[in-house]
Design a protein that fits this description.
Layout (H helix, E strand, L loop, with lengths): L2 H4 L11 H6 L7 E2 L2 E2 L1 E2 L10 H14 L9 H21 L7 E4 L2 H16 L5 E5 L8 H10 L2 E5 L9 H7 L4 E7 L11 H10 L3 E5 L11 H4 L3 E5 L10 E5 L1 H6 L10 E4 L4 E3 L13 H17 L1 H19 L5 E3 L9 E6 L4 H9 L3 E2 L1 E3 L4 H7 L4 E5 L6 H18 L1
Parallel strand pairs: 3-15, 5-6, 5-7, 7-8, 8-9
Antiparallel strand pairs: 1-2, 4-10, 9-10, 11-12, 13-14, 14-17, 16-17
Helix pairs in contact: 3-11, 4-11, 5-6, 12-15, 13-15
């Protein structure tokens, strides 16, 4: 069984206590419109445990300084914490070396970095880039731009009515002209889990390089980049209980070494003269300018928290919540779930009769229930299912069956109002 699926079937250990977990997230202890906050918008961003907020505060109160090259105490402390977070991410992803962990602004920048550095320097007219119909816009638009720049052609693997990839179509479209395969690990609009390990093996057999968009995966299932054998893996801290504006690109060292810098400026150089500039070693070659130091340190604290809680426990707990929610919403006449893949995590997208998702979300808000509505930056998915958008409840480690019950009752009331 591949690593990306097995974590879903892990039994919750005795150490997972939902009351303790919820107590670690102060933002959940508030009311909205006179009702307890029920936060079901984790696919857009997760809430932050107190330890992450306190880590950010500590950096700014006590250690605020620029990293690298400073010889004073604050700079040395900041550098130690910043590089310590890089190593935490290396261990979290099971990368071989910290040289393979590049800090970025998030998944979107990570994908653009690969497109503009690896892709623009290696693709030629006639090459093909293979994506899927379920991709987030951030894993579509950079490749479209690259095709315009290089003369490569974009190919799209379709999905079925359950929201699963048509694997036979993937095999048919994959050929010796395929240079890059860019595939999402977990769909943000459907919750579908793709068999990325199998897809990577097939792509490599054709000589293609594979980038995996892991933004929606890393908070829910164990990711081992060496086991997957992916060439690139992109993620964002704010999807895994960390700060916004910071993320990571994992890349195989051999590929990163061969790629030209993405941006020019400070810290990514070794030597600068008006005659010639030489570039820094990995991963700093791709980290131009003063980085998001606090964000990186906060991301490290978030990873510590997730690992201490246990990804296996988190995954199994969330799987139970998703199953329960799927059963409960079946009570509501006229509710259509969009995305019924056999392997899913975290996401419940739906239409309520023919009512616009925004109207549904607005009414739920008055009951303190926070969901996401719209196309979720996945317009091709909406076009496939013939809907303008969906209402999406997405679950995190701190959600409970009681949250689901309140959500369902609010949905029933919304249906009555809209009807």
């Amino acid at each position: 069984m591949s690593a990306d699926v097995s974590a879903l079937r892990t039994v919750v250990p005795q150490g997972f206590e939902i009351g303790r977990v919820r107590g670690d997230f102060p933002i959940l202890q508030q009311e909205v419109h006179g009702h307890p906050l029920i936060y079901l918008d984790n696919g857009a961003t997760t809430q932050k445990p107190a330890v992450v907020v306190e880590t950010l505060e500590r950096y700014y109160y006590l250690d605020n300084a620029n990293v690298h090259r400073g010889v004073h105490e604050l700079s040395e402390r900041a550098t130690e914490a910043y590089e310590g977070s890089r190593d935490k991410l290396r261990r979290f992803l099971n990368a071989r070396d910290t040289a393979e962990i590049v800090f970025t602004r998030g998944t979107t920048e990570s994908i653009n970095l690969v497109a503009q550095s690896y892709g623009r320097s290696s693709l030629q007219p006639g090459d093909e880039i293979l994506v899927t119909e379920m991709e987030h816009h951030s894993n579509i638009v950079p490749w479209q731009m690259l095709c315009e720049q290089t003369g490569a052609e974009l190919k799209v693997v379709p999905i079925n009515e359950a929201g699963e990839l048509k694997l036979d179509e993937f095999e048919r479209l994959l050929n010796e002209r395929t240079a890059i395969v860019a595939v999402v690990h977990v769909s943000n609009a459907l919750g579908s889990i793709n068999p990325v390990k199998k897809l990577i093996r097939q792509a490599h057999a054709m000589g293609a390089v594979v980038l995996v968009d892991g933004a929606q995966a890393v908070a829910h299932i164990q990711v081992d980049v060496q086991d997957l054998d992916c060439d690139f893996y992109a993620l964002s801290a704010h999807k895994v209980y960390g700060p916004t504006g910071i993320g990571v690109l994992y890349g195989k060292e051999s590929l990163l070494n061969a790629m030209p810098p993405y941006q020019g400026g400070g810290d990514m150089i070794e030597h600068v003269s008006f005659d010639k500039t030489t570039f820094n070693v990995l991963p700093y070659k791709f980290e131009a300018g003063t980085p998001n130091i606090a964000g990186a340190i906060g991301m490290g604290a978030a990873i510590d928290y997730v690992m201490a809680t246990g990804l296996g426990a988190i995954s199994a707990h969330e799987r139970g919540i998703l199953q329960y929610a799927t059963q409960r919403v079946a009570e509501i006449d006229g509710l259509r779930i969009i995305g019924t893949a056999e392997l899913k995590c975290s996401i419940l997208s739906f239409m309520l009769d023919q009512h616009h998702p925004t109207d549904v979300g607005t009414l739920l808000n008055y009951h303190g229930v926070a969901i996401r509505t719209g196309h979720h930056c996945a317009m091709p998915v909406m076009q496939h299912f013939g809907v303008p958008g969906t209402a999406r409840a997405s679950f995190g480690m701190y959600n409970t069956r009681e949250d689901v019950d309140i959500f369902v009752e609010a949905l029933k009331k919304a249906k009555d109002v809209l009807s």
